[in-house]
Amino acid sequence: MKHRQILRAAAAFTLCLTATTMMASTATAAPTKGKVSVLNWWTSGSEAKSMHILQQMLADQGYKMVNDAVSGGGGSNARTVLKSRIQSHNVPGAAQIKGPEIQQWCSTGLTMSIDALAEKSHWDQVLPTAVSKYMKCDGHYVAVPFNIHRTNWLWINKAVLAKAGAAMPTDWDSLVAALKKIKQAGITPIAGGGNTWQVATELDAIALAAGGPDFYRKAFVDLDTSALSGDDMIKSFKHLRTIQQYSDPNAQGLSWNHDTGEVVQGKAGMQIMGDWAKGEITNANATPGKEIACIAFPGAHTGYSYQSDSFEMFAHSNSDQNAQYAFARTALSPKFQRKFNKAKGSIPVRQDVSLKGFDACAHKAKKDFKAAEKNNALVPTFSQDMAEKGAVKGAIFDVIAKFYNDKNMSAEDAAREMAHRVQQAQAMS
Ligand code: BGC
To answer: What element of type H or E holds 405?
Structure first.
């Protein structure tokens, strides 16, 4: 291209860009009432779509939501970014933080109370206590919950099961029998194992099914040494080794949402993952509960490991306070609760919102949640930050990674090391 042609092309490009920008800014009303920046780790297709719903609803009210999304399933990267942003005085208006970590942030004195809003909108009445208790520091609301996710799910491609001549699993033995048949049919039985967070999510579901809610609570919430090193933990590690043997040997580095795609496409039979996988299934135009079955991870016990995605609000942030309030208010509005949770795969955290139009798996989730609440079978999920604080979680994850990477490590050694490392982490924190 000659020099003049290049200049002409550049001018045309600039013109085109200006026109596009103008079109974009006239399409949605320019936000005038202030902005809120929101740090989160929702970057998969369904996660980004779900967040866009909030961005749009805020834009419709005249607020700008800056979506600061940091990739990495489970949020480890987003947590690091939050710390460094706080150190450099670039504090977001809201950040995705869950469980006991919400209280830890309160002790820094950086959080903002949203009591006035919570009171006005009756949050104490519409939220389950299992969730609202995490949103408060010393009785004051500092975080807003978006949803309830269940961790202990098993997603199964029904066509793969039929092709392999396997039956729908109902307990551990029938699950292993199904995995064996899928392998014999030449299909990867389990998609997963790409990183420690995924493997911890698998062990989370396995432990609840193998040992039951009482064991789970003793081990992961009370951090009881004999539960951490005892028979149920040993059994859980043994089951994890079996699952590993049926998992994709080339999974290293693959994301959870890539794995969900493998199950939807029939390249793998199953995935052990929380119901954020359901968001991806829907996003891929499959129907959860129809082509892809959803069952609680099978074993000797039933239970419900839950977690709530929530956003902690920060004072002295880079955001406008009225926009921060609009963010929290809109997130718990019935309209957003329905739209968002349908796209995200979770169920509404507001108990007064109807599930009309939600898929069969969401209905099952809600029914099971209610039953678990009643039967004391609801447990805060350890792999998704609901059970313990950073250092202890780090110790548990380290042992899981060591066990998964060293096929010669016995389940007994892993359980013993788990108890030891947790004790150490507690002593140091
Ligand atoms: C979050 C989900 C998210 C998943 C994968 C979980 O810890 O709670 O909302 O979709 O991580 O990123």
So the answer is: helix 390-405
State the distance from the centre of ligand 1 to the C-alpha of 295, rounded, in angstroms.
Answer: 19
Whether 194 is covered by a domain: the verdict is: yes
Distance between Cα 75 and ligand 1 center (Å): 7
Ligand 1 geometric centre to CA of 149 (Å)? 9
Look at residues 362, 385, 402 and tell me which one is the last residue of a structural domain: 362
pLDDT in tens, 354-410: 999 999 999 999 999 999 999 999 999 999 999 998 899 999 999 999 999 999 999
Residue 64 backbone dihedrals phi, psi, to 5 degrees:
-105, 125
The structure tokens listed for 402 are 């060591």
Q: Which atom of ligand 1 is nearest to the CA of 72?
A: 12
Tell me, what's the pLDDT at 390?
A: 82
> 145 CB under 6 A from ligand 1?
no
Any atom of ligand 1 within 6 Å of the Cβ of 345: no
User: Residue 239 is part of a domain; what is its CATH number?
Assistant: 3.40.190.10
Q: Which of 384, 385, 386, 397 for mutating ligand 1's site (highest number of atoms within 8 Å of CB)?
A: 384
Q: Is 309 in the pocket of ligand 1 (CB under 6 A)?
A: yes
The verdict on 418 and 288 lying in the same domain is: yes
Give DSSP secondary structure letters for 17-44.
Answer: HHHHHHHHHHHSPPP-S-EEEEEE---S
The answer, yes or no, to whether any atom of ligand 1 lies below 6 A from the CB of 306, is no
Residue 280 Cβ contacting ligand 1 at under 6 Å: no
Are 282 and 334 within one domain?
Answer: no
The share of the chain scoring above pLDDT 70, in percent, equals 93
In short, whether 329's Cβ falls inside 6 Å of ligand 1 is: no
Is the predicted pLDDT of residue 5 greater than 70, yes or no? no
346 lines ligand 1 (CB under 6 A): no
125 and 274 co-located in one domain = no
Per the structure, the complete domain to which residue 134 belongs is given by 31-149+307-362
Q: Are residues 422 and 354 in the same domain?
A: no
Q: How many other C-beta atoms lie within 10 A of the C-beta of residue 297?
A: 25
For residue 74, what pLDDT is reported? 83
Neighbour tally for 429: CB within 10 Å: 12
287-334 confidence digits (pLDDT tens): 999 999 999 999 999 999 999 999 999 999 999 999 999 999 999 999
Q: Average per-residue pLDDT in the chain?
A: 93
What are the distances in angstroms from CA 307 to CA 77, 252, 276, 311, 335?
Answer: 19, 26, 11, 13, 21
210 near 235, Cβ under 8 Å?
yes
For the segment 166-177, the average pLDDT, to the nearest whole number, is 98
Same domain, 316 and 299: no
Same domain, residue pair 116 and 89: yes
